[in-house]
Every structure is written in structure tokens, then in C-alpha cells.
Amino acid sequence: NRRFLLAARPQGMPKPDDFQLDTQPAPEPADGQVLLRTRFLSLDPYMRGMMDEAGPGYAPGVKLGQTMVGGTVSEVVASRNARFQVGQLVLSSAGWQEYALSDGSDLTPLGEMSRPSLALGGLGMPGFTAYVGLLDIGEPKPGETVVVAAATGAVGSVVGQLAKLKGARAIGIAGGAEKCRHAVEVLGFDECLDHRAPDLKARLAAACPDGIDVYFENVGGEVLDAVLPLLNLHARVPVCGFIAHYNEERGGAATDKRTQLLATVLGKRVRLQGFIILDHYADRFAAFRRDMTQWIDEGRIVLVEDVVERLEQAPDAFIGLLQGRNFGKLVVRVSE
Ligand code: NDP
């Protein structure tokens, strides 16, 4: 069983040496357990927080020397649990490794899926995040302007497409000309702006002549600076993440923006609402799966994946995610 352990707590951007590849014999299931083989491993921004001792804020960090955590699509390869059959695919949290044991309590059977990896992306946690964050908190109305950054990523790509589906204008922000072209031509954004090119503030103002009604916050940083002056009265800002700050020291450079942020929220009567998707599964997940499956079948939602081959590539691919090298939902194909 090859697996990646957390070898060191990163200072700033994680380095390959922060992960250690370890090899053990595959474990044997005890009575009541199943042995899982990882098919796909999801790589997600929250994992950066899990590398810190304090964790991302809603869960403790991974302990040094422990296997890196992560969602997986896994296959049951041995079963001593009557609820699971060999060959069955399940959604699991097996982490960055090839094999894992489970008593079944944390497993969700996947049933028939033509692209099982989508259970980690557009039909799973990131897609659900876009759905709850945009539809329940952002509440876009026809003709309104919705802005989202990391627009070609796992969450942002679905946010933009749902905004269009609800009749809003969707303005994306992404890193580089190729991602921006993809956002417009494939995902259907009305416009997409490159945050690495100069004058983002002026270009965003030009792209949003009627201001911004919904800003789906994924990144913070300079994008947030450009968005704030354009927010309309009663704008909604689902605060989903702030990846531009994930490699900063806690309490560091992000703090000085607070006054400006709060003054805007107050003056514009903005509802600024943080959310953790874990809170919404019981209420909203069934509706999400029903709607999303239908929209995919109708060709109204496109899900783009960035599939990296082999578990060994996981640290490099994860560091790439924090730098914008991924193009779409990042997953690792661990086995066929
Ligand atoms: P993505 O697939 O979008 O990958 C991350 C992307 O972030 C990169 O490709 C890059 O895109 C962008 N990025 C990285 N650094 C910066 C920066 N300094 N400035 C601007 N953009 C940057 O990841 P996800 O879709 O999985 O996650 C998007 C956000 O949603 C994250 O903040 C994540 O933490 C949050 N999230 C929150 C959840 C919740 O429950 N609240 C659940 C799931 C995700 P580009 O090259 O286009 O800049």
C-alpha cells in the first residue's frame, strides 16, 4: 500500500518534501470491515489548511506522520461486511493512498455512474458547494450580474453555469488567457477576465456596467479589492473560500483589508454569509443530485476534469492547484 504521509508543516506554499511516500503491505479486513482500493483521489484547496496544526477552522489538522486526508472514489476489493459487495464503487474518505480499511459507516455506494470521478467534482462536494452557495445564499435573479473567480475550477465552473441557467450575467475571473477563453467558449460565461494581467479593477468595472449583484467569494486578495467598489445595493456575497490567502501566516497580510470590507458590507447592506458545505448535506444534497443530473443530461452543465495519472503525482498536482496549474476539477487516477 503506497501512501503519502504529512512529513512537515509547510511555511507558505507547500513543497514536495512536506509529503513523504511510504510503502506498507496492503491491510487485511477484520470482521465487519471492507478493503478499499482507490480509483480516484480528490485534491482540494482545504487540504492546505489540513496541513497546518490548527486545521482549516472547522476540523483539526492532519498529525505529522499521518496519511494525508482526502475524498476518494474507491472499489470494494474484499468484504467482510454484508452491506458491501466486492466490485462495488463507493465514495470514501480514504485519503492519499492506494488501499484503506473501512467499517462501512463512512461509505456512500455510488451505483451506476458513467464517470465515477464526478462524484468528487461536479456531482459531489464542489458542485454541491456551488449549488448551495449560489442558489441558496447568492440567490441570482434574471438580468443580475454574478462574478466568480477561480472560474474554471471545480466550484467556480459550476457557479458560472448555474448563474447562466438562472438567467443572470456571469462574469468569470481566472488565471491566464487560455482559462478565460475556456470559461467563455465552453462554460458559457459572458466574459472572463485574467487576474494576472494588469488593471483588473478597470477591466472588471467595464465588464460590470450595472455593478455586481452576486459576488461568489472563492479567492479574496486583489480580486476582492476589485469587486468591493462595484457591489450594488443589497448585493449578496456567499463567502466560500479565500485561496489567495491560504499560504499566508495566520493574522498576516489579509487583516488590513478588514475596515474596507466591513464599511462596504455595512454601507451597501450586503449580506455576507460564510458557509461550510458539510452543514447542508442532510437538507439539500438530494435536490442537488436530482437537479444536477438532469442539467448534465440536458447538456446545460459541462463538467471539466483535470485528471492526473498515478498517486506519485499527488503532491506536485496539489501544489499546482494552489498555484493555478489545474484546469478544472483536479483528481488523481490512482488505479484503473
Ligand atoms: P479550483 O479547482 O478552483 O482550484 C483552485 C484555483 O484557485 C486555482 O486553479 C486558481 O485558479 C485559483 N487561485 C489560486 N490562487 C489564487 C490567487 N492568489 N488568486 C486568484 N485565484 C487563485 O478549487 P475549488 O473549486 O475546489 O475551490 C475553490 C474555492 O472554494 C476555494 O477557496 C476552496 O477553499 C473553496 N471551497 C469551500 C467550500 C466550503 O464548504 N465553504 C467547499 C469547497 C471549496 P486561477 O488560475 O483561475 O486563478
Automatic annotation (TrEMBL):
Protein's recorded name: NADP-dependent oxidoreductase
UniProt keywords, alphabetically: Oxidoreductase
Region (Disordered): 9-30
Enoyl reductase (ER) domain segment(s): 12-332
Native organism: Lysobacter auxotrophicus
Cited Pfam families: ADH_N_2, ADH_zinc_N
Gene3D superfamilies documented for this protein: Medium-chain alcohol dehydrogenases, catalytic domain, NAD(P)-binding Rossmann-like Domain
Coiled coil segments of this chain: none
